[in-house]
Amino acid sequence: MPARPRILHVIDSLDLGGAQVVLWNLLAHADRTRFEVEAACLHGRGVFWERLVATGVPVHALSPHRLLPLYVPALAALLLRRRYAVVHCHLLGANLIAKPLAALLGVPVRINHDHCNDKLADPRRWVPAADAWTNRFSTHVCAVSESTRRFLVAHEGVAEARTTTLHNGIDLAVFQPRPEQRAAARKQWALPEDAFVVGGIGRLTYQKNFALFLEVAADVVARHPQACFVIVGTGEDDAALRAQAAVLGLGARVRFLGYVAEMSALYPALDLLLLTSRYEGLPITILEAMAVSLPIVASRLDGVEEVLADGEDCALVSPDDRAGFAARVGEFIAQPALAQRYAAAALTKVRARFSAEAMTRAVEAIYRKYLEPAKWRG
User: Fold this and answer.
1) 209's torsion region: left (phi>0), alpha (psi -120 to 50) or beta?
2) pLDDT at 376
3) Residue 272's closest CA among 342, 329, 331, 351?
4) Which domains does the chain show, CATH number per domain?
5) Helix 18-28 and helix 284-291, axial crossing angle in degrees, nearest 10
6) What is the pTM of this model?
């Protein structure tokens, strides 16, 4: 076996998303003395393109658009030319296309990184069957939460020995508490100096349920006029959410910031993270908020509960409980000492358990497990 086996990460796109952040961290922290690492996106370049390129890893865009399926022949050509030892797939499109193609073309190790507990909640009813089919081609599956791993074993027929719970990690050197930057950050984004600013961060899609976020915002503002809300992200629901905010009469009390490239610069402007998702795996946003010592109110979801404990380092609320979310946000506004105590506990936890470097070393250990006894040609 060559000294440095070639690894190819394949992802649907490099648009906004937690899976893209995970991929970026895997590339940035890769042990390049042991592995020759590359990445490919099926279509487009997206907001993460420059970040991935900046890691110094070769990055391939296989088709200019999702509806132009040049990614199939382009990926086949890439696999044949580069003779990868491992193809590591992220998100559904990559699993549906890259994993079977890699198996057909003789790539010895096919890894699936399962980023979300979305199989039954996804409104696209064909997704569970498609996902189960693609797992037939997986050498190993990395699940970002234990609940995700258990689902794969119980409902999709993946052998337990071929699964690993591998929690997401973040760059703890980048995400740190920076209270001294609060005033400058508020000025940069034109946020009131004396407001209590609640942030919602993520793709503007069904999964993240920003419609509920806005309803909660309306309830909180009615009781706490010093509160204001910001939504950070882009997605298909953008226009509908802006219209909803107008109907709710939120006016200047809600700001749509769009895509923010450097989240570490925005976090000092916020007082609270509010996550109202319908389903999740292990949200990167949660880990970032923990690392910058930002209090958290979040949906009580399996993956989130594996990391946070209600009443100890966060407030968890049943998904779709509008009144419950508003009450817990209001509790943190009224009791800043409580909010800071929870945030400090969360900071201690994330520093001990959720670094990007540790996540990457764990992934590479899985590669070595399958490559060291294998016989293949590089």
Assistant:
1) left
2) 44
3) 329
4) 6-169+355-371 (3.40.50.2000), 179-353 (3.40.50.2000)
5) 70
6) 0.92
